[in-house]
Write a structure and sequence with these properties.
Elements lengths: L1 H12 L18 E7 L8 E8 L8 E11 L1 H7 L4 H8 L18 E9 L11 E5 L11 E5 L3 E3 L6 H4 L3 H14 L11 E5 L4 H12 L3 E6 L4 H6 L4 E4 L5 H6 L6 E4 L5 H5 L10 E4 L4 H8 L1 H20 L4 E4 L6 H12 L7 E6 L3 H9 L6 E5 L5
Parallel strand pairs: 8-9, 8-11, 9-10, 11-12, 12-13, 14-15
Antiparallel strand pairs: 1-2, 3-4, 3-6, 3-15, 4-5, 5-7
Helix pairs in contact: 5-6, 10-11
Amino acid sequence: AASGRALRGAARAGVQPPPVRGLRASPRARSAMPSWVIDRYGRNDVLRFTRDMVFPTIHFPNEVIIKVHAASLNPIDLSMRSGYGATALNMKRDPLKIKSVDTEFPLTLGRDVSGVIMECGLSVSYFKPGDEVWAAIPPWKQGTLSEFVVASGNEVSFKPKCLSHTEAASLPYVGLTAWSAVNQVGGLNKSNCGGKRVLILGASGGVGTFAVQLLKAWGAHVTAVCSHDASTLMKKLGADDVIDYKSGNLEEQLKTLPLFDFILDNVGGSTEKWALDLLKKWSGATYVTLVTPFLINMDKLGVADGMLQTGVTVGSKTVKHLFKGVHYRWAFFMPSGPSLDEIAELVDSGKIQPVIDQVFSFSEVPKAFLKLEGGHARGKTVINVISKK
């Protein structure tokens, strides 16, 4: 994959790969940068602006430093601000307990980035300084609400040419989460999706709006569940049927429709008790939920017991539903530059467009968190990091 991306990257850039460069933070040898950080977990008052965040450095030869032009917020940022997943994420941050300081703070949130490559590690041949890129940074790394961020080269992709940085920053995290659920876990792709009946629960959020467009681009018949005020947006994005979950008993409304081949659940909770009955039996039909207890179990029970409990839960549910003739799966966000390459092609061909609810300046990050916390967003909350407001 890396060699293919190298050739494609060089071809798209119209240049030969750059000469090998050493590991260094920046030619300007800066030591600090502006960033929004948290020093403890809690509510919105834990967000703190600083101009003294440590400037990122390249530690591995496949890493790049990106100057952040725009970022966006996702529900995971609200959860991480409150400490969700801290046990598992801290284990991932320092699995061998090497660090002398046993704390993740100060911690920068934000997963999405659209910006410009500033510096490359020794083994990075498919990007060069000046390239416009986008990426979703995994949650165990320092985030993108900062002037610069470090990413692994295999997490980064060339930004779609047709989008501004502000537009591009709205897509990577939700796009890769939907891609993981639909393609890597659900097994759907452009060659096998035509004519399949798909149900998306919670269709008006970031993942939902992306999934509707992706599945329509692949030829599926999409039924979107959302509130009434999002129905116009759903139709604009291509949904064939739009169901208002507030206009009566949702389960009964959906039972009047033909059975589905695939269900993507962004809601969880009680929906899991009845949603699988809407699938076609003994046909390979699959239910994929993005609402899982994995990180919560580890926070509550510790790493070992949390992983054991999670394994028992998913195993028992999978077997139970398999006996009923349907597949039950969990899906998670997975960082992937190659998947972003494919998403960029769909964006540049006009099949997927960003859905942005509101754009905030870098100085308004706490306001942006409050906006996201209020719920009922139609699309994404974006931060224009390089704005001077």
